[in-house]
Design a protein that fits this description.
It contains 24 helices and 19 strands. The chain is α/β, with parallel strands linked by helices. The protein folds into five domains: 199 residues, no CATH class; 76 residues; 121 residues, GAF domain (Beta-Lactamase), CATH 3.30.450.40; 189 residues, Response regulator (Rossmann fold, 3-Layer(aba) Sandwich); 155 residues, Heat Shock Protein 90 (2-Layer Sandwich), CATH 3.30.565.10. The strands form four sheets. Strands 3-2-1-6-5-4 form a six-stranded antiparallel sheet, with helices on one face. β1 and β2 form a beta hairpin.
């Protein structure tokens, strides 16, 4: 038992006894000083309390009064002083008792005896023994190791004091011959022993007496009467017998009867108290078990709620748990609409089938008396029958007679309500209502968190989608920047081939038909490569739709593409023993379509290559054209929707996941052989041509790609600039600046074939030097052609230097980066015209003619 749990009455007994010992000792000393018999012996003729005894009681009282300071003082120094003072006084009492006992044992007074007692009478041996016993007990008070001895010494001293006191109560000779204690001496020994026991109530005999257990209750009720009643009854019996009222036998009978009646009453009173205590204990245990069951149910509901993230499943698991484990006969949850001031039932329990149709029912707040729930107040109706509002009447019709409305509050605002009902009148206890209130707080928090989780999940999904979009755009931008550099190198490489091919077709009139067709195919391929590279550099830019104005014969385009890709679908597979059979099914008389021929040819090349890759063991590749028609009713003829081109293979096909993702950039089923951009390019071309792209594929059943274009009637394109059949009328002096000798040579030869005077410079600085040298010699150049990308001094610096020296000299920029350089969409400063590589001979002629005529004028 802790100090905080010990009642205060033992401490009060201890303090009162200490004061009593000091007061009586002082009174006796005063009696000896004033020669007052009453103070010395209480009753004349009775034994007196001698001065040494009074001195010992005075010392014992002071030592007893110091013990509480040892235990309770907050000051360490004060506790230490109190402890040693109490120990010293107790030790002095023991020494005084031992000195008297030693004198009695030796049969004469010792010197030590005279030192203490001087001229006064000596104390009785029994008194000395009790001082030794209780003084030693005082020395052991508070010591755990000597606690048993402390109790034994205290009880033994108490017994000796009682034997001494009994002679004054009942008369006769002392039970012990040497027991000649004064009446107040024996009484002080009795209270001193009791006070010592009260000084340490946490352990031993006193711990039972001060406890709040059933044993403590019995001890407090019976111990005092058990000591007082027999003593009192025995004294009365003795007095009546001495007065002659009855004999010895009758006295014994009365003594026994009195004890039986007294103790019977005490036992009955104690039993009734124990009965009440036991009932209270059982009621407390039942309430505790009920609370534990409620806590376990709350734990189960909390665990079930924690496993769910949507409100509907949270509400449903709460209702099911309440119906099964609380239990209730009906439960529902209604959500609050602040705008309409109404509740809408969202979930209904399954136990009450009659009321299952209440779901989605609207409940008015005020008309049903639920207004108090707006402030978070729980509403308990023990008798629903007395209510006349609509919703409670519905519950009564369902056989329910008591109910609880629990508000679900989120941030001090009503979120909804939980309704629980039972068939019995007054069916809910206060603990039920308290449990439902706690459950309502938990539900409101869980529902609020579910809402937040849903919002966070949607925000996270949006963020992921945005992140994927941004990453895709970044990848496309990085690819476009990388492709731009590659395009520059490729354009420079193919420029000589393009110029020579064009020159051969124009100048060599004696070419055979097959040779001319071959050169035309090479020319188309080079043009397509250039256009493809230009589009690759625009992958990371927002591109405006191009105007499609050229009429295209789709059948002729298919034949040209088959011839162009012959090596890929025929020769290369045959090297590995694989045969791919090319089948064409081209419809006759299909309308022309509008578009860019090179882009659509590139689309068809991509699709043929994909089909070949999808047939690693060979198969059939079919190219089919036809007229796409709209669906019509039974009596209406089908209308033409456009012209379609189908690429059909008998290859491995795609599963549903691959078919769904095949349009994503960088998604490929070819592993390291694929880039994942082929179909992306196809889709982009179809969007620019306002066409449709459809893909039908299945595993092991091949793939069909269908391209549908808008048909046009005799499309008339803008007239192309007339090509020059021969050299221009006036030759001019031209400066060519480029750091690539392989490109300088064909450019110079083409221009010289037209009769121009051409000077070449290898690099930007050489070009600037050549231009300034010509000016100083009075032989200026009429036109300057310069490459854009050159080390140290690029084309822009060349143009700036030339314009500073001769502002009227036209500067034409040749670039393998395409028409767009960096982030600029306009012609760079100091540049009059930009021509992309590979440069066509017709573009060169047009530029020279344009600027030579301007110069002449």
């Amino acid at each position: 038992m802790s100090k905080a749990e010990v009642p205060r009455w033992p401490q009060r007994i201890h303090q009162a006894t200490a004061g009593l010992l000091v007061l009586v000792a002082l009174a006796v000393l005063w009696g000896w000083a004033a020669d007052n018999v009453r103070l010395k012996s209480v009753v004349s003729g009775w034994p007196r309390m001698v001065v040494p005894t009074a001195v010992c009681f005075l010392l014992a009282g002071i030592a007893l009064g110091l013990l509480p300071l040892v235990r309770e003082s907050s000051s360490v120094r004060r506790r230490s002083i109190s402890f040693w003072a109490s120990q010293g006084l107790s030790l002095l009492v023991v020494v005084m008792g031992l000195s008297r006992l030693l004198s009695y044992a030796l049969g004469r007074d010792s010197g030590i005896d005279h030192l203490f007692y001087m001229r006064f009478s000596a104390m009785a041996p029994a008194t000395a023994i009790n001082f030794i016993l209780l003084g030693t007990a005082s020395l052991l008070a508070g010591r755990r190791r000597g606690f048993q001895l402390f109790q034994v010494l205290t009880l033994l001293a108490n017994l000796i004091a009682w034997l001494a006191f009994s002679r004054f109560l009942y008369g006769g000779a002392p039970l012990i011959p040497q027991d000649t204690l004064a009446v107040h001496t024996s009484l002080l020994f009795l209270v001193w022993s009791v006070a010592l026991l009260c000084s340490w109530p946490e352990d031993g005999l006193m711990s039972l007496l001060v406890s709040d257990s059933a044993g403590g209750l019995i001890a407090r009720k019976l111990l005092f009467p058990a000591m007082i009643v027999p003593i009192s009854v025995g004294w009365l019996r003795l007095q009546g017998q001495r007065a002659g009222w009855y004999g010895t036998e009758a006295g014994l009978s009365l003594f026994a009867l009195s004890n039986v009646v007294t103790f019977g009453i005490l036992v009955w009173i104690t039993a009734a108290a124990l009965h009440r205590s036991d009932l209270s204990r059982r009621n407390g245990e039942w309430k505790l078990l009920e609370q534990l069951a409620r806590l376990d149910l709350l734990r189960q509901i909390t665990q079930a709620i924690g496993e769910r993230q949507d409100m509907q499943s949270i509400f449903q698991v709460v209702l099911r748990s309440l119906e099964d484990d609380l239990p209730i006969d009906f439960g529902c949850i209604a959500l609050y609409d602040r705008a309409g001031m109404v509740l809408t039932v969202s979930n209904v329990g399954v136990r009450q089938a009659v009321l299952a149709d209440l779901r989605h029912t609207t409940i008015g707040i005020d008309e049903n008396g639920f207004g108090r729930s707006l402030n978070g107040q729980l509403i308990y109706e023990p008798d629903l029958d007395r209510l006349t509002t609509p919703f409670p009447r519905q519950l009564v019709q369902g056989g329910l007679h008591s109910g609880v409305i629990v508000p679900l509050m989120v941030e001090d605002a009503l979120f909804g309500i939980l309704i629980a009902a039972r068939r019995e009148w007054e069916g809910f206890s206060s603990s039920d209502c308290e449990f439902l209130k706690h459950l309502g707080d938990l539900m409101a928090l869980a529902a609020h968190q579910a809402q937040m989780y849903g919002s966070l999940q949607r925000a996270y999904d949006d963020l992921q989608s945005t992140r994927q979009t941004v990453m895709q755009q970044e990848r496309l931008r990085a690819f476009g920047q990388m492709a731009s550099g590659i395009a520059h190198d490729i354009n420079n490489t193919i420029s000589p081939a393009a110029l020579y091919t064009e020159s051969l077709l124009e100048m060599e009139t004696g070419l055979s038909r097959q040779s001319r067709r071959t050169l035309q195919t090479i020319q188309r391929a080079l043009n397509d490569v250039s256009n493809t590279l230009t589009r690759l550099t625009d992958l990371y830019r927002q591109r405006e739709p191009q105007v499609v104005s050229a009429p295209i014969d789709l059948n002729q385009l298919v034949r040209q593409t088959i011839e162009l890709t012959n090596a890929r679908w025929s020769a290369m597979p045959q090297q590995h023993g694989i045969v791919i059979r090319m089948v064409t099914d081209l419809a006759h008389g299909i309308p022309l379509i509008r578009g860019l021929e090179n882009e659509i040819r590139e689309v068809l090349v991509n699709l043929i290559f994909n089909a070949v890759d999808a047939m690693p063991n060979g198969g059939t590749l079919t190219l089919r054209t036809g007229i796409a028609k709209t669906s019509s009713g039974k009596d209406e003829p089908a209308e033409m929707r456009g012209v379609y081109l189908e690429v059909i293979d008998t290859g491995v096909g795609m599963d549903e996941e691959a078919r769904r993702r095949c349009m994503e950039p960088f998604f490929t089923t070819k592993g390291d052989r694929g880039t994942g951009l082929g179909l992306v390019m196809v889709q982009g071309v179809m969007e620019r041509h306002s066409g449709e792209l459809e893909i039908d594929s299945a595993l092991a059943k091949g793939t069909t790609v269908r391209l549908t274009f808008t048909a046009t009637e005799a499309a008339v394109s803008a007239p192309a600039p007339a090509a020059h059949a021969g050299p221009i009328s006036k030759p001019v002096r031209i400066l060519l600046v480029d750091d690539d000798p392989l490109l300088l040579k064909p450019l110079r030869e083409v221009l010289e074939l037209d009769g121009h005077d051409v000077v070449t410079a290898n690099g930007g600085q050489s070009g600037i030097d050549a231009f300034h040298a010509a000016l100083s010699q009075n032989k200026p150049f009429s036109i300057v052609f310069t490459d854009l990308g050159m080390p140290y001094v690029d084309g822009k610096k060349v143009a700036l230097s030339i314009k500073e020296a001769a502002a009227a000299t036209p500067v034409i920029l040749l670039t393998g980066w395409g028409y767009r350089s960096g982030n600029e969409d306009e012609t760079p400063a100091n540049v009059d015209l930009v021509l992309s590589k590979p440069t066509r001979r017709g573009d060169l002629r047009s530029a020279v003619e344009r600027f030579s005529s301007n110069t002449a004028s």
